[in-house]
Amino acid sequence: MVAADGLEISVENGEYLCLLGPTGAGKTTTLRVIAGLTRPDSGQVLLDDRDVTGLEPEKRNAVLLSQTYSLFPTMTVAENIMFGPEIRGMPEEEKKRTLVELLDLVRLTKRSSSYPRELSGGMQQRNALARALATNPDVLLLDEPLRALDARLRIDLRYELRSLAKGLGLTVIHVTHDQEEAMVMADRIAVIRYGRIIQVGTPREIFDHPATPFVATFVGQSNFFTGNILCSGHGRTTTVHDDEGRIVFARPSTLPVDSKVVVAVKIGNTRVVKLSDAYLTGTVERTLFEGRIVHLDVNVPGLGRYSVKLPASRRDQVAVGDEIGLNWDVDKASVFSYPEDGLEKELKVD
Amino acid sequence: MKHQDRFLEFINRKGFRKGWSAFIVAFFLFFIVLPTVYVVTYAFTDWDAISLNVLNNPETMATIKDAIVASFAIATIVTIIDFLAGLPVAWMLVRKNFRGKELLDTLIDMPLAVPTAALGFSAAIFWVVNPNPPPFSLSVISSPFLLIILLHVVFSYPYMVRSLSAILEEIDETYETAGRTLGASRLTSARTITLPLFRAGLATGVILCFSRSMSETGGTMIALSTMSRLGVTAANDFATGPTLIGDWKTLSLADPTYTPALAFVSILLIILALVLLVVLKLLIMKFHLPLRKVWPMPEKMLSRGIFPKMKDGSALFFLAMIVLVPSFFIFTYVAFSTPQAGEWGQFFYALGYSFLVAGVVTVIDIAMGIPFALYISKHPDRRSSHVLDVLVNVPLIVPTAALGISLSLFWSEAGMLNGMEFIVLILAHVAFTYPLVVRNVAGAVEEIDPSFEETARTLGANPMQSFRRVLYPLIKGSILAGAIMAFTRSLGETGATQAILGNNAPTAPVYIVSLVKADAFFQAGLACIILIIVSYVFMLMLRYFTKKKEVI
Q1: pTM for this predicted structure
Q2: Which residue of A has its CA nearest to B465?
Q3: Span B436-488, pLDDT tens digits
Q4: So what's the ipTM on this one?
Q5: Which residues from chain A sit within 8 angstroms of residue B458, using beta carbons?
Q6: Which CATH entry fits the domain spanning A16-208: 3.40.50.300, 3.40.50.360, 3.30.70.20, 3.30.390.10?
Q7: Secondary structure (3-state) at B230
């Protein structure tokens, strides 16, 4: 089985990198290869230009924090943290100092003699983090570190985890399938699919300039328009039309005239407008009031369902059954050549 | 310090670890599996001897046929009784809460604490017709066949209840609740929803009970001797496969012409046991209980009022009368007998000898069993470890008497029998106790998330450190449980010991057999009690350690 294939990426010191991809994309395998728990069939792992591919996990100083934290159930919070230093034979004085510092850092000083099973999910996560930090790792490998927490805590801990890593100047590789998490936490995101890296870039780059239709919809959800190019080229707005004669506009592209393309627009960038200004028109199928925003499902004939978000203040302006117009800023729309295996397969998440 | 570091460095090397694994697997194959089935080769090398002394001897053939048929019939009936009587009790233990549940839980395991030799004596004096019956005994059984069935039920029953309740605990009760909210009566939903999910537990239970009954020697032999001493002559001619081996081995020490017959019986038993294992596994996994049909009215009626109480009541009555009272009747018997003076020196020598054997065996089991268990449980995807996993069960299902014959043949071919009986005895006991340690430890390791050890490795622990500091504390309870099971099993073993050393083997269970044969009932009873107490102390330790494991 090929879990990760042809994957090449370099991480800077002190960088927070997120590996983002759907379940089964090979993210965890990548981490395990870096940690030395899975041996790659080919390829190399370099840490500080040192080839560690053949090295045992304990010789790499790359610490893995697993989804379930794997806190040793027979040891207390403090014993868990001291596991690494003790194995390395750190002098007693230094060990004590490290322990005090780390307990303080993760706010577990009062619980130092509790057992992991007596801690809440968030405390367990912090305990595991302190244990990982105690060995002063060259790189910290986080495998879905927030997955086991409940929704509210998960969001709070995003910021906490990132600022902790940044404050300590750690190099972090963080695996997640949650695009929002990757967006707010990462310096750079690497989007992985079928064991390959599709795109690497800052969260903004990934969001605004997706490399493929898949990235466009996996990070931030997009609406799609399929058609042929009428007009393209450097510095010129791309014009795309379809068989029904509808015409939409998108940012400049070098794809040749007449080629079959897909235009992707983030649902947040899709606007509800007067019919006279619209690129496309459709019928409102469903409205979902989500509190701050209203989510509309609009049926655009021949193109399927478009999603649009409206601020809650405009809630009363649209109702199910209304005919509405849609458009977007030209430079917010990306153009891709039509995927070989069809659009549906390209967009499928699993 | 420097040397120690270098040594540790060395044993953590990949190359060393590979070599060590190879050694452990080789030990298992050449010291456990191969000797266990070696006797089968006798059929190829000495077929002439077999056909001359056995196949052409109608009398011997008839004896063999009778013994093996009896063994099978007994094992089958015992297994069925165990299932019928064990299911309600397993159900009670898992699904119901009542006062005294803890006590019931403890009582079920009691017969396991009693060495089968003591059980055989205790059950025989309780059941068998006796011209002057001891107080409180029943004295009703005059058929050796029935007696052996009653005896085997006693020590196989706990295995069945344990297997069934283990699987029952795994089955989600909400299935049944769902069935009941959809309108099924208690009986209907249990029968049509939960029972069909039962197969895995049933397979384990059936195989354990069947092979235990097929294999048992000591208790059977003592029960039959007691019966014949009490004047039931039918017991003289009655034999099961394993007791036949025990008797013939003793005869063959003086008259070598018995050897081919001995080998032949052993081969038959081993092959039948292996075939049976496969057949039972397939049968139970493939066989669908034809129980789809529902009879709402009668089942509703049976689910209410007096019927469930009758079912539970009779299951508990069975447990008390058939299993517990006969197991411990020996205490009553000794208390109400007139003491006889006896020669105790020999018994305590035998007891000491048994302890020595059991101790050495347990140490070997642990030293060689743990690495092997780690090997098979850490690479579950490898085909080789899958094969080894199946092979581990072989010594468990092969009747120990046949195993003993096979081993003594193997090691005498290897030139080891003369003057080295002790070593061969140890190896024999290792063969059938080794799987107990491996099963326990491998089971525990499989339960533990490999990410514990992986995390330890990335935190800088080498393989030795991550085992000692992370894995070992988690599986300590199971290691101890396996060790204690191995120890008590070795302490109570008769069949394999006799198969190697004959009736004069200096171990405690064999000595008790000889006491019974010499009509020294009181002494035999007292010796049994001592053996029971010693085993019981170990059993308590087992419960203590396994309890502790659950807390973690």
Answers
A1: 0.78
A2: A87
A3: 889 888 888 888 888 899 999 999 888 888 888 899 988 888 888 788 888 88
A4: 0.80
A5: 35-37, 57-58, 60, 62-64, 141
A6: 3.40.50.300
A7: coil
